[in-house]
Amino acid sequence: MAFAHSPVDLDRALARAAGQWVGWREHTLREPLDLDPEEGPLEPFRDATGLTLFRELRELPAQDPLREPLQRWVYRLAEQRINAAVLTRREQERRRPRQVPEAPGRAAVSLARMLESALADAPRRALWLRLFLEHAAPVSTVEVELWQRRREIARRMGLSGPGEIEAPLRAPPGESTAGEGTSAGPSPLIEPQRVAAPGAADGSKHTAALAEALSRQLRERIEELGAKDLAALLGSALGQDIPADWPARLSLQRLSDYFRDGELLRSLELRPAPLPPSLGAASFCRALGVLGGAWLEALAPQDQPFVVAHDPYGLQRHEAAALFARLPLNARFLGRHLQVPRGALADVQRRLGQVCLLSLAQAALRVRLRSAALGSERGFREAFSELTNLELGIALPPRLAGAVFQLDVEDEQRLVGSLLAAQRERELIEAHDEDWFRNPRAIEQLRAEARRPPQPHVTPERAEAALQTALRRLHTLLR
Question: Where are the domains of the chain?
Answer without folding.
Answer: 7-96+136-163, 203-478
